[in-house]
Design brief:
This protein has about 375 residues and is of the alpha+beta class. It is about 25% helix and about 25% strand. The strands form six sheets. A four-stranded mixed β-sheet has the order 10-11-15-14. Helix 2 runs antiparallel to helix 3. The longest helix has 15 residues. It is elongated and about 110 Å long. It binds zinc ion (2 copies). The site of one zinc ion has 8 residues, from loops.
């Protein structure tokens, strides 16, 4: 995976701090700003810098980019084919509309408590087997999240009644408080203590949610985990987090991947490692053995005179790349097991073997006493 392009655009290292990224961004956008720099290509360069900073300047987007590349930073996978199924058109756009309409700060200072707000994000850990991580999997996730109350549909008022304009603040959600200070009378705006900022009073609260309009509900989603994921990678499911406020969108659900270890294989990215144990006769004379891979057994020819530590490559028998492209390989490392419990016939055969060649071997016959106190 080459997720370094945005870093290169800003001329910073992958380990750069947010501060360094911001500094580099400021410097470069000044240099290439179309109002200042009239050179050919400067405008494109300026746009590239903006794009890189939009991702790297945001910790969450940056983490996603580091793992999945540009598509990951935008909440998608593999060219956007990944997770759109979960949220229809996607809240990405919805959210953007909200922030441009409502995010600009209300006049009068302070945050408007009645403005739509996105709900909180949630995190859920999904455990995968080694094989599921290699081949991908569809997992059903069940969790509780705050949702709109099903009885009152989020209004907080008993069905058949509606919230009314707050009698104290007149619906503004804030009230003015005058305080005597050494500098004179100060007027401050504080959140209304009757409606707590909503601007609405509920005379007849809903029995289910007691007026909050929110309810903890069990929720189930399906997550399609792409082939080739690794531990600590995250998948964002837009709109699957907690309910928003004042009609704002739901937060997101971050599915954090955990891959269980395999008792046979190890994996590093797309490469899978396997240790093949041979006895010393197989190593010396050669053999044909079945080697397990996640794709099924593969026949491997061990040549005569294979040394311990020798590595064979089984092309294409590794894990797929998350970003597409060629599938990885499996490496098979040879371990030669030295026999430990020779019987007399084997002992004799080995001595004959040594004598047949030019090997000088003088095994020491152990007596009973030495055997008892053998150091190893
Ligand atoms: Zn309710
Ligand atoms: Zn009020």
């Amino acid at each position: 995976m080459n997720n370094t392009e945005f870093y290169e655009r800003l001329g910073v290292s992958k380990s750069a701090s947010q501060d360094e990224i911001k500094k580099a961004y400021r410097k470069l956008s000044k240099k290439y700003h179309p109002d200042i720099n009239k050179e050919a290509g400067a405008e494109q360069k300026y746009k590239d810098i903006q794009e890189a900073y939009e991702t790297l300047g945001d910790e969450q987007k940056r983490a996603s980019y580091d793992q999945f590349g540009a598509a990951g930073a935008n909440g998608g996978f593999g060219g956007g084919q990944g997770f759109s199924g979960f949220d229809g058109a996607g809240f990405g756009g919805f959210e953007d509309i909200f922030s441009s309409f409502f995010g600009g700060g209300m006049s009068g200072g302070g945050r408007n408590p009645n403005a739509p707000r996105k709900g909180d994000d949630l995190q859920y850990r999904v455990n995968l087997t080694f094989e599921e991580a290699v081949f991908g999997a569809t997992k059903e996730i069940k969790y509780n999240r705050e949702s709109s109350c099903h009885t009152c549909d989020g209004s907080g008022a008993k069905p058949g009644t509606s919230p009314v304009k707050c009698s104290r603040c007149g619906g503004a959600g804030v009230i003015n408080v005058d305080t005597q200070t050494p500098l004179g009378m100060m007027r401050r705006q504080v959140t209304c203590d009757v409606c707590h900022g909503s601007g609405q009073e509920i005379k007849d609260p809903c029995n289910t949610c007691h007026g909050s309009g929110r309810e903890n509900q069990a929720h189930t989603v399906e997550v399609r985990v792409p082939a080739g994921v690794e531990t600590d990678q995250q998948i964002r499911l837009s709109g699957q987090g907690e309910a928003g406020y004042n009609g704002g969108p739901h937060g997101d659900l971050f599915v954090v991947i955990h891959v269980a270890a395999s008792d046979k294989f190890e994996r590093d990215g797309t490469t899978i490692y396997y240790r093949l144990h041979l006895n010393f006769v197989q190593a010396a004379l050669g053999d044909t053995v079945d080697v397990p891979t996640v794709h099924g057994d593969v026949e491997l020819t061990i040549p005569e005179g294979t040394q311990a530590g020798k590595r064979f490559r089984l092309r294409g028998k590794g894990a797929p790349s998350l970003r597409g492209g060629a599938q990885g390989d499996q490496y098979v490392t040879i371990i030669v097991d030295t026999p430990t419990d020779l019987n007399d016939d084997q002992r004799k055969a080995l001595m004959d073997f040594a004598n047949a060649g030019d090997l000088k071997v003088k095994p020491k016959k152990k007596n009973f006493f030495e055997k008892m106190f053998d150091a190893d």
